[in-house]
Design the sequence.
C-alpha cells in the first residue's frame, strides 16, 4: 500500500527551524511505522534522524507521536493509522527539547530526572548471609513497578510538565516509589526526602492522566499518592504542606466545606509575615473581581454537623 | 581526551557488572554504550538465571547439565568456576534489589527451565533480563561511573600489539573523541542481526567482535549460533520463554497434534524437531499456551501476553501462536580465558561478544544472564588489577586525525542504486538459508561466495549524509561492515567443522565426530581476510 509520511524536521546544524518532509512510499500490509522509517532512511532520505532499538515493544526508545498520539513506532502498525486516508504524521513527543528531527532529548525529558531521585538501593544485610527473606507480595508489587520500560508515555500525558518542565514527573516519581517501598532498602527515607522537595510529589495535581497513558498499568498516580502518605506518616513533610493538610481537614470538619481564605492563610503560617504578604496581591485581585465577600465570612453548610461526626468517627477509628 | 584505568564498551548486563566490579576494585572506570543501557539487548532475556540454590542441587549437578547442553565442547575449568560462583552472584543481585519471585518461605523461587535437570532458575516473572538490567544500572549509577551514552566506538587504539583505548563518535555532539585506558573491556553483545529475521535488536551487530578481530584477537567457535525454538517470526522476532514449556505449553503441528515431548530437551534438539515437523508436514508449527491456564499466564507470563497482543494481535489464552526457530544468540565470540583476557594485551571481552568455552556447542537455558554477571565481575576485577599493575602508555593521539580522515573517505554525495538496506536484507536471508539451523558443505561454499560479493558491493557504497549529528546512516554503515566481516567468519568456521554438534548441524555430516572435532575452531584476521587457525582441543 502507498502511504505518505509527513515527518517533523529540525536540523541543528542549519538554522534549526522547524519544517516537515513528506515521503511517499510503498509499504507492506503488516509494516510498522518503524519499518517505514527505516525504509525512508535507506531509500529516500538518509538524513532523517529517529531512534529505534528492540523493534518489538520491549524498550521505549522509538517513542514518538503518530498522528498526534504518543506511540512506539515499532508496534504501531501502519494500517491502524491510515483509516482516514493514506497519510501519517510523525512528530516528537510534546513538550520535550528536540535535538534533530524525531530525536528528542531523553536526558532532559526523563533520564536526568530519574537520576535525581538517587535511583539505587542501599542494601540492608550482606550477600554472605544468603538472600533476604521476604514475601512474594512485596516483590510482586516491585515487579509491577519495574515492568516500566521507560517509554515516557506517563510523562507525555502529565498535565503538570507542560506548565513546569522541572517537575520530576510520574516516571521518576514511580522510580522513587520502587526504592521507598523496597523492604530491603536501608536508605528508603532518602528517596522520600528527595521527592518531597519542591518539583516532587506535592506538585502532582492528581489528574490521573499518567495512569491513563501507562501501557503497563503501573498506575503512577497511585504510587505518587503512596509516596505522599509515606512522607506524611514518617514526618518527612514540609511544614507548609503539613499546615495545608491540617487546615484543609479542620476547615471541612468545622464548616462542612472548604474555607479557601483560611486555607491560604494557615498554609503560609500565621506567623509567616513574608509568606502572608505574598498572598496580598491575590487577595486584592479576588476582592476586585468579587470573589471574596466583604466582610469575609465563611458560613457553615447545611448538615455540617453530620460531616463533623464522620470526621470524629474516622479519628476514633484511626486511634 | 577521556582517561580511565578501565574502559568498558557496552552497557548491557555484562558491561554494567564489569564496570561496577572494576570500580569496587579501586579503578577509575568509564563506560561507552551506543544506546542507553536500559535499551540494550539484555532486556529481551526473559526466563531467568540459573543458580544451584535448591536443596537437592549442587554446582556439580549444574555443571553436568551445562556440559550436556554444550555437547562435549565446554571448557571444564570454566564450567567449574562458573557453577561454583553462580549462587553468590545471583544472591548479590537479590541483595542489590532484584525482586525475584519467592516461594512460600520467602526464599528465591526456583523454576524448571529448558534442559536443567533441577529447578534452579531464579526469575522475575517473564521479564528477568529487563529487571536484572535495571538493577545493574541502578548500582552502576550508585557508583557514579561516567557513562557515555549514544557514543559509537569506531576503532580500538592498538599500538605495538597492546590495546591502549578506543576512539568513539558522540552521536549527539557529532565529535570524535579518544578514550585512553590501561584496560579495555568489550561487552558489546552479539551479532545475530545478520540473520533476518532473528531475535536480535537493531543494534546487535557484532561491532565489538569485529573491532577485536581486526585488532588481532582470535574469534572462537563462531559457527555455533544458538537458535531459539519459540519465536513468533517477524523481522525482530518475538521470543517466548522456554519456561512456558516447563509450565505446560505444547508445540503442535498444523493438525494441532503435539510434537513429541520436548520438555527438558536442549534447545538445539527442540529447534531441530520443529524444523523437521515444518519440512515433513510442509506446514506451520504453533505454540499452544492454553494448557498453562489463564491465571498462571497472567501471573507468570505478563510480558508474553502483552507483547503477543500488541505485536501479533494474539490472545494467548485463546489463540495458538505460530512459531519457528530463529537465530538467537552467538555462542562463539572473541576468544578469552575465564578472566576475560583476550590474546591482545590490555583487551578484555565478556558476555555475548566473548567466548571462554563455557557454553561449548550449546548454551543451557538460563545460563546467559548468570554468565553475564559471573564473568562480568571477573572481567571487571581482572581488568582493574591489570590497570593497577601496568605502566601507563600514552594514547596515540594521531589516530584521532586518521579516524577523521577515514570517516571523511566514506562520505560522498554520489548516488547509488545499491543501499545498506538492500545489502543487509540479502545478507540476512542468505545467512538464514545457507548458514542457518542446518547447513551443508555446498551451501556454505555458496554462502562464502555470496558474502564476498556483498562485501564487494559494500566497499563501493558511500554514506550520503554528511552530518555528524545523529547520523544513523553512518552508524548503520559501520554496523553493516561488522556484520559482513563476521558473516564470513561464521561461514568459514561452519565450513571447517565437518560434523554435527550442538548448535552446529551439518546435513552432510550428521554425526558428532569426537575423534577429529572435540575442539574449538579459531579464525584470525590475516592480510585483510579471515584465516582458519589450527583447532584447539576442548579442555
Sequence:
Amino acid at each position: 500500500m502507498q502511504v505518505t509520511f509527513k515527518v517533523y524536521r529540525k536540523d541543528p546544524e542549519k538554522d534549526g527551524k522547524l519544517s516537515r518532509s513528506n515521503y511517499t512510499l510503498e509499504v507492506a500490509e503488516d509494516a510498522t511505522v518503524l519499518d517505514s522509517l527505516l525504509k525512508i532512511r535507506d531509500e529516500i532520505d538518509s538524513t532523517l534522524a529517529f531512534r529505534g532499538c528492540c523493534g518489538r515493544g520491549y524498550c521505549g526508545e522509538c517513542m514518538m507521536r503518530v498522528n498526534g498520539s504518543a506511540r512506539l513506532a515499532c508496534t504501531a502498525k501502519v494500517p491502524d493509522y491510515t483509516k482516514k486516508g493514506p497519510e501519517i504524521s510523525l512528530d516528537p513527543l510534546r513538550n520535550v527539547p528536540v535535538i534533530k528531527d524525531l530525536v528528542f532529548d531523553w536526558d532532559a525529558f526523563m533520564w536526568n530526572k530519574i537520576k535525581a531521585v538517587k535511583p539505587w538501593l542501599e542494601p540492608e544485610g550482606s550477600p554472605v548471609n544468603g538472600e533476604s527473606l521476604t514475601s512474594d507480595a512485596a516483590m510482586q508489587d516491585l515487579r509491577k513497578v519495574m515492568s516500566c520500560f521507560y517509554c515516557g508515555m506517563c510523562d507525555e500525558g502529565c498535565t503538570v510538565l507542560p506548565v513546569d518542565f522541572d517537575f520530576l514527573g510520574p516516571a521518576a516519581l514511580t522510580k522513587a516509589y520502587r526504592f521507598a517501598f523496597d523492604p530491603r532498602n536501608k536508605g528508603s527515607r532518602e528517596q522520600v526526602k528527595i521527592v518531597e522537595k519542591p518539583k516532587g510529589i506535592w506538585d502532582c495535581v492528581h489528574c490521573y492522566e499518567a495512569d491513563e497513558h501507562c501501557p503497563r498499568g503501573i498506575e503512577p498516580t497511585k504510587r505518587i499518592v503512596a509516596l505522599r502518605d509515606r512522607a506524611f506518616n514518617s514526618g518527612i513533610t514540609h511544614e507548609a504542606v503539613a499546615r495545608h493538610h491540617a487546615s484543609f481537614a479542620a476547615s471541612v470538619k468545622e464548616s462542612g466545606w472548604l474555607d479557601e481564605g483560611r486555607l491560604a492563610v494557615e498554609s503560609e503560617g500565621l506567623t509567616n509575615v513574608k509568606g502572608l504578604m505574598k498572598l496580598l496581591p491575590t487577595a486584592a485581585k479576588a476582592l476586585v473581581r468579587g470573589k471574596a465577600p466583604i466582610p469575609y465570612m465563611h458560613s457553615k453548610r447545611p448538615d455540617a454537623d453530620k460531616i463533623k461526626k464522620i470526621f470524629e468517627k474516622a479519628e476514633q477509628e484511626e486511634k | 581526551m577521556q582517561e580511565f584505568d578501565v574502559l568498558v564498551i557496552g552497557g548491557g548486563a555484562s558491561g554494567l557488572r564489569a564496570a561496577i566490579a572494576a570500580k569496587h576494585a579501586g579503578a577509575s572506570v568509564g563506560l561507552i554504550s551506543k544506546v542507553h543501557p536500559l535499551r540494550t539487548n539484555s532486556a529481551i532475556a526473559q526466563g531467568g538465571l540459573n543458580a544451584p540454590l535448591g536443596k537437592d542441587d549442587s554446582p556439580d549437578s549444574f555443571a553436568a547439565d551445562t556440559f550436556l547442553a554444550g555437547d562435549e565442547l565446554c571448557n571444564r575449568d570454566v564450567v567449574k568456576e562458573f557453577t561454583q560462583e553462580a549462587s553468590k552472584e545471583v544472591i548479590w543481585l537479590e541483595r542489590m534489589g532484584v525482586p525475584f519471585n519467592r516461594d512460600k518461605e520467602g526464599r528465591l523461587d526456583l523454576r524448571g527451565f529448558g534442559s536443567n535437570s533441577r529447578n534452579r532458575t531464579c526469575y522475575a516473572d517473564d521479564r528477568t533480563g529487563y529487571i536484572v538490567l535495571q538493577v545493574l544500572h541502578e548500582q552502576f549509577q550508585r557508583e557514579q561511573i561516567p557513562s557515555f551514552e549514544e557514543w559509537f566506538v569506531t576503532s580500538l587504539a592498538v599500538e605495538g600489539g597492546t590495546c591502549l583505548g578506543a576512539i568513539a563518535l558522540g552521536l549527539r555532539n557529532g565529535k570524535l573523541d579518544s578514550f585512553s585506558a590501561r584496560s579495555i573491556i568489550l561487552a558489546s553483545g552479539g551479532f545475530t542481526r545478520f540473520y533476518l529475521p532473528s531475535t536480535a535488536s537493531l543494534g546487535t551487530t557484532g561491532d565489538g567482535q569485529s573491532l577485536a578481530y581486526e585488532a588481532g584477537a582470535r574469534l572462537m567457535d563462531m559457527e555455533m549460533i544458538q537458535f531459539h525454538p519459540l519465536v513468533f517470526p517477524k523481522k525482530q522476532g518475538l521470543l517466548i520463554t522456554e519456561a512456558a514449556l516447563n509450565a505446560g505449553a505444547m508445540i503442535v503441528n498444523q493438525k494441532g497434534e503435539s510434537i513429541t515431548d520436548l520438555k527438558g530437551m536442549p534447545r538445539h534438539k527442540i529447534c531441530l524437531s520443529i524444523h523437521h515437523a515444518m519440512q515433513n508436514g510442509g506446514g506451520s508449527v504453533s505454540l499452544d499456551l492454553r494448557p498453562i491456564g489463564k491465571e498462571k499466564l497472567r501471573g507468570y507470563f505478563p510480558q508474553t501476553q502483552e507483547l503477543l497482543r500488541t505485536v501479533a494481535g494474539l490472545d494467548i489464552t485463546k489463540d495458538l501462536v505460530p512459531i519457528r526457530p530463529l537465530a538467537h544468540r552467538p555462542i562463539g565470540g572473541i576468544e578469552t580465558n575465564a578472566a576475560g583476557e583476550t590474546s591482545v594485551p590490555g583487551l578484555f571481552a565478556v558476555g555475548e561478544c566473548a567466548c571462554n568455552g563455557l557454553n561449548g556447542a550449546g548454551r543451557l537455558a538460563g545460563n546467559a544472564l548468570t554468565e553475564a554477571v559471573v564473568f562480568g565481575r571477573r572481567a571487571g576485577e581482572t581488568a582493574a588489577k591489570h590497570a593497577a599493575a601496568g605502566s601507563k602508555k600514552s594514547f596515540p593521539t594521531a589516530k584521532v586525525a586518521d579516524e577523521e580522515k577515514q570517516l571523511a573517505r566514506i562520505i560522498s554525495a554520489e548516488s547509488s542504486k545499491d543501499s545498506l538496506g538492500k545489502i543487509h536484507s540479502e545478507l540476512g536471508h542468505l545467512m538464514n538459508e545457507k548458514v542457518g539451523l542446518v547447513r551443508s558443505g555446498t551451501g556454505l561454499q555458496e554462502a562464502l561466495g555470496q558474502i564476498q560479493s556483498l562485501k564487494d558491493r559494500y566497499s563501493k557504497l558511500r554514506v550520503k549524509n554528511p552530518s555528524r549529528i545523529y547520523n544513523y546512516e553512518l552508524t548503520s554503515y559501520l554496523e553493516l561492515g561488522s556484520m559482513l566481516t563476521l558473516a564470513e567468519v561464521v561461514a568459514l568456521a561452519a565450513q571447517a567443522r565437518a560434523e554435527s554438534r550442538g548448535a552446529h548441524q551439518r546435513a552432510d555430516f550428521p554425526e558428532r565426530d569426537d575423534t577429529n572435532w572435540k575442539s574449538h575452531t579459531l579464525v584470525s584476521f590475516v592480510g585483510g581476510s579471515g584465516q582458519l587457525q589450527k583447532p584447539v582441543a576442548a579442555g
Q: What stands out?
A: Chain A touches chain B through 63 residues (CB under 8 Å).
